[in-house]
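Section: Multi-chain targets

For targets with more than one molecule, the full set of components is provided together so that the structure can be written out for the assembly as a whole rather than chain by chain. Components appear in the order listed by the source. The example entry contains three components.
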Amino acid sequence: MGSRATSRGLDESIQKDSSTCSECGSKKTVQISQTGETVCAECGLVVSEKRIDYGPEWRAFTADERRARARTGSPMKQTAHDKGLSTVIGWRNRDSSGKKLSSERRAQITRLRRWQIRSRVHSSIERNLSQAMSELERLSSQMGLKKGVKELAASLYRKLITKKLVRSRSIDALAAASIYAALRLREMPRSLKEIGRHTYLDWKQIGRHYRLLVRKLGLRMPVPDPMNYVPKLIMNLELPAVMQEEVLKILQDAKNHGRLLIGRDPRGIAAGALYIASILTDNRVTQREIALIAGVTEVTVRNRYKELVRELKIEVK
DNA sequence: AAGACGAAAGTGGTTGA
DNA sequence: TCAACAACTTTCGTCTT
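Its structure, encoded as tokens over all components, is:
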């Protein structure tokens, strides 16, 4: 038996990894970058101790670290643009010897000035965009997202830029928010916390930026549907796939019943329905297990389960 | 002994004056 | 801006299997 990693609060990131835990057989492993260990997400067994961290070694988590680890090239935060990095065409219409310029010459200079300003703005947008895109790339590959989701997120981010909402806001937070929004638009919800786990950001920050994004872009989010959570739950609980039908049947009934679903956490409803199905099909799973996977508490699973049984008149046991 | 149950108090977010 | 509010969580004692 290997040693166990118990410490919390490290930088954990779920990796797509083929290694299987020798203790509990789970395929989910978590890499802890600080120590280089790969740990089973289920039981904490250290699966492998020498895994390479593929991330760039200068990856920084806070503004301070970023400054400390910066290498050559322009600093990331350039509060005053062009600080000593490019020549600015002066505003006085005189040449170097102080003589007044001819009108054609002046017009030419004005044109030049205008272009310079444009290119400056252009390049700052470019810089922002390229940083954002690489963050989107990093996040979606780390989270194993489909290409379509990433592209949707990217287009959301571009809209933010054209609406001039990016300036003075965290690029990474907006990128994460774009991902979150894209996932919800595609009805493949992941929790804010799950996304937060792959960034140095607090999930609440991502949530704030997400709300801004939805508001300013006037997005209409599809109502979260409990059905979307079912496949993931079944998979993570390693239940037979046939159960899915049973759960969906219950959820469909609940939908038709009306007002059973509104205002409720869809994950709780999915969990409750799954619990019922587990009894009906004799694949009993404890409330505790379901709650853990669904990301709600036992109490919520219980309440939803009770409600569904009562309102839909389901015979259990 | 493990799982299910329900009461009670606490938490963070929404709503409406 | 504030308070009321609903949903959910945490915690814990008790009942059931």
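Chain A has eleven helices and four strands.
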